[in-house]
Amino acid sequence: MTGRWRERLFSLFKKSALDQEFEDEAQSHIDLATDDYLQRGHSLTEARRLAHVRFGSIAGSKDAHRESRGVPWLERLFFYFSGDVMRHALQLWIRQATTHTALTAFLVLSLAISLAGGAFALSLNSAVLWRSLPFESARDLMSIQARGEDGQLRWLSWRELESMTAPRIEPFDSVAGLTAADFNALSEAGLPPEPISATVVSPNFFDVLGVRVALGGLPPLATYGASRDRVVLLTHEFWQRRFRGATDIVGRSIRLSRPEYLGGGDEGYRVIGVLTRDTWLLWKDFDVVLPMQAEPSRISDSSRGLFERVVGRTTSGATAASARVSAPILLERIRAAGSTRPTASLSVSELQEAVFADLRPQLKVVLWLAILVLSLAGINVVISTIAQAAEQRRGTAIRLAVGASYTRLIGDTLYQHGITLCVATALGLALAQWLVGGVGSQMPDGWLARIPGQLSALRVDANVVWWLGAALVVTIVFSCGSVHAMTRRLRPWSLLCSGAAEDNLGARTWRSALVGLEIALCSAVVITSVTLITQLITLRSVPMGVDRTNTSAIWINLGSATLADVASRVSYYDRILQATQSVAGVESIGGVSHPFTIGWESVQIRDATPSTASDITALARSATPGYLQASGVPLVEGRWFTASDRMNAPLVAVVSESLARARWPAQSAIGQTIRAVGPDGPSPVATVVGVVADTRHAPHLPPDRILYRAVAQDPPPWLYLTVRARPGVGDATQAVSDAIWRVNPDQPVDGPWTFSEWVDGRTAHLRFLTLISIVLGGVSLVLAVAGLYALTSWSVTSSKRSIAVRRAIGAADRQICAWYISQWARVVVSGLIGGWILQSVWTSALVGAIQGLQPPSTSMVLLGISLMAIAAAAAALAPLRRALAADATTLMR
Amino acid sequence: MSRTKLDLLQGTLDLLVLQTLDTMGSQHGYGLARRIEQVSGDDVLLNQGTIYASLVRLQQRRWIVGKWGTSETNRRAKFYTITKAGRTQLATQRSYWDRLTAVVGRVLAPVPGGDK
Question: Is B48 close to A29, i.e. CB distance below 8 A?
């Protein structure tokens, strides 16, 4: 640093002393000059006057002295942050707020509401898409997904997973697999049976994800694969809930029942550890983690899918692109493992991207809505600032006349905005908390369970602050830019212009353009909201094919003791159904392997006799005789299953109407013989004995083609018991559960879920998006209407003279109206057209990305535009009345 | 015909102050301002107050030093003196100025026969 810069910086700290020295020196100068003029024969008064004139402005010289000796911009910065100036600015702001209460309240509220909406939407995006997954070096984690020839994701076998790790494939350090599985925690002393969710993992899993335990240790390598050493890790939450945080849990044995596809079995599992609190393993809803264990035959079977998801950790710093390069090698290795189910393709992507791939487009909608609302609020601030600056032109000119610098004027604007923004931000953040609690709780359960940290993850973090800060800075820059644009043309002699209060053409055009943009943005939001609302209403009115009245379901997942063979499983279901049928309050009860809301587990339907007809894919379901009545699905033709459809009777099947139509379009389905070809090969021949009405698992999709088989002939490893309660009974599922436990005290029961909950759940994502769009659409409508009101009001105020002139030369109300409407329509119509174009671009990008979302129809667009036009007309009504009230006498005021 | 007063070119006031101090020796602000006006034949438009911005700038650069004292009319005043570094700087600036004025003069000089 040079000597002069050092001096300049030091001068900042001895400002008062240096100012004092200048004043002393200036006084000395004036005195010397006065003496000089006295010596030249002037009177004392004249000498003093001349001395002052020759010296020039003392304040100006003082400013020049300061600028010369210090660092002006830094000094100005210090100055603006000094207590006096801040206090003065606050007093000024309060004065402005009390003088223009409506304007200040409007500014603060519109900013606060939009900031709250923005903060909520941004925090949602941040929690899901921007924040790193809660794993060590999460950026190095890749998702590896294999797809079969049908394009569906396929599970990988033990052998296939092994083939990816040895020998090592660059840039992957290690690869691990995991699977979600439904286990049962069996009854123990004082603990009831309970269905639990498990995550079953491969040997490298804990290293790959960097998962840690709070108590105990991790499963030793020897416990994986064909090992019979049953060990389990508990989640912190499960440990607290079921074992009340018992400190002696490690080493204790608990009884678990594993699902059939992992070999089944009720056994004691040794607890070896407890995971840290809030451990998230790509989903939150799990209770235990177990090492993947299965019989040697399953482990060695290359075709037996055991791992639902595969995650690889790359060497530090490797990019997703470099990991993708190795996809063909991984595919080759998998194929070489020798599975009979060929893998058609394999993809590698960043884990975060893969985990939330389906949520991304929906969150983008939320984000764009938030950006639109923030833009609207920003535009309103700029418009208000311009209006305020125009109104204060005389005051500004006076300030310029008495020596205020343009920098000072801009600085004052900045301060006023800063205070407004601080107040609005504080209010907005408080509102955001409320939104997170209110709107966040409406988030679909499927979303919440997948967000690390769930509802608590929705918070204002650095990402949110950055975005909001950027929005505020842009707003401030535009506002100050507008003030600068208006004041830089101002000169002190503007005071002399009689029309100083009149609006100038440039400012009016600029404001009109801003309001037009505001209407365009708002129209886009309103049309999107209208589209979402109408589509949600339409989807909710789509019949799902079942009768929801008084109907609930509970799930029983069988333990291996009851799974020993097919006959005992059938017998077990018989006993349960018998015990539950007689429960008081139950009108009808039946079981089905998959509820109507599930759209997977399919088979190929093939004619039993050789034919040229190609196979048709259908959902495979097993159901009990009572299911049809309990679920309310109507019988269309033939018959439903009866008690006589047993294992030793001829195999029968029932098909849904859409399957019957697709398979036998010109003839009856009754009497047709078919085989169902599943993962285990073709089933024995079954005869179709009935056709039932269609059901659908999602309202936006066509009805499902379903093949029903009798539970007694094809018993599934679990059953959803559908319970229809008698009218006025309410929930009968608790009594049903009690009846089940009388049959088997170890039988865990999950649920209940009402059919209405299930149906609502299918449109939960659209409902949530609709809720957000209604909230943000409502906010944007208020902002746009307020902006338009401000524009038209200002337009009328600033055009009073010209209205008065028109009145003076004989203009009638009709002409004033026409003039006013032409002003209004120019802005509104161009805004509406812009909104329509914007919305077309916006929705074309969304449709297809969001399940169930259709492009808006012409009627929806017209409805949205009409709503906007009505709101705009309402906003212009009050200013119009003021315009009509103006008369020729206005000219004289 | 009345002559309009000259606006000082940016930076030239510093040069004039240094030159005046070098010639006149120790001077207070008013004395410097008067001297510059007198030497310029009252052709320079100078708000006398602006000289103090120049003086503080030169002081920070250590080209002059200031010290409070008493004037010949028994007034308290701050007297400025040029330093050794100031003289060196004056020589450099003077040489620069000479070259600049020579070049500007050459460029602006009427070309013989150019008005034909």
Answer: yes
- Determine contact: A50 vs chain B, CB below 8 A: no
CB-based contact, B48 to chain A, within 8 Å: yes
Residue A498 pLDDT grade (very low, low, confident, very high; cuts 50, 70, 90): very low
User: Which chain B residues have a beta carbon less than 8 Å from that of A56?
Assistant: 47-50
Q: Are A670 and A637 in contact (CB under 8 A)?
A: yes
| Residue A49 confidence (pLDDT) | 93
Provide the 3-class DSSP secondary structure of residue A461. Answer: coil
Instruction: Reply yes or no on whether the pLDDT at A807 is more than 60.
Output: yes
Contacts A35 to B, Cβ<8 Å: 73, 75
Residue with more model confidence, B10 or A677: A677
Angstrom distances, CA of residue A92 to CA of A85, A99, A395, A511, A683: 10, 10, 14, 25, 85
ipTM rounded to 2 decimals: 0.90
Is B71 within 8 Å of A4 when comparing Cβ atoms? Answer: no
- Nearest in space to A712 (alpha carbons), one of A645, A621, A628: A645
Interface probe for B, chosen from A25, A34, A57, A67 (most Cβ of B below 10 Å), is A25
Classify burial at A71, counting beta carbons within 10 Å of its beta carbon; exposed 0-12, middle 13-18, buried 19 or more. middle
Q: Rounded distance, CA A535 to CA A478, Å?
A: 38
Q: B76, A67: Cβ pair inside 8 Å?
A: no
DSSP assigned state of A276? P
Asked which of A532-536, A543-547, A637-641, B99-103 is least confident by mean pLDDT, the reply is A532-536
Min distance A511 CA to chain B CA atoms (Å): 41
| CA A134 remoteness from chain centre | 18
Residue A705 · residue A662 · CB < 8 Å: yes
B65 to chain A, closest Cα gap in Å: 14
Categorize the per-residue pLDDT at A258 as very low, low, confident or very high, splitting at 50, 70 and 90.
confident
Cα distance from B101 to chain A (closest Cα, Å)?
Answer: 26
Does A55 touch chain B if contact means CB atoms closer than 8 Å? Answer: yes
pLDDT at position A357:
85
- Cβ atoms of A154 and A148 within 8 Å: the answer is yes
Q: Are A414 and A477 in contact (CB under 8 A)?
A: no
Picking from A22, A35, A36, the nearest residue to B52 by CB comes out as A22
Q: Is A819 on the interface with B (CB under 8 A)?
A: no
For residue range A709-744, what is the model confidence (pLDDT) as tens digits?
A: 999 999 998 899 999 999 887 778 889 999 998 888
Top residue of B17, B34, B60 to mutate, by most chain A CBs within 10 Å, is B60
Chain B CB within 8 Å of residue A615 CB: no
Q: Min CA distance, B70 vs chain A (Å)?
A: 10
A403 interfacial to chain B (CB closer than 8 Å): no
**Amino acid at site A810:** G
User: Model confidence at A2, in pLDDT bands (50, 70, 90)?
Assistant: low
A150 φ, ψ (degrees, to nearest 5): -85, 5
Rg of chain A in Å (alpha carbons): 38
Give Cβ neighbours of residue A782 (< 8 Å, ≥ 6 apart). Answer: A110, A113
Long-range contact pairs involving A96-99 (C-beta distance under 8 Å, separation at least 24): A96/A416
Residue in A closest to B80 by C-alpha? A25
CA distance A657 to A641: 16
Residues in chain B: 116
Nearest-angstrom CA–CA distance, A689 and A625: 13
pLDDT > 80? residue A868: yes
Q: What is the pLDDT of residues A383-392, one digit of tens each?
A: 777 777 776 7
Residue A314 in contact with residue A179, Cβ under 8 Å?
A: no
The residue that leads in pLDDT, A709 or A64, is: A709
Count CA atoms within 13 Å of residue A218 on its CB side: 15
Report residue A93's pLDDT band, with 50, 70 and 90 as the boundaries: confident
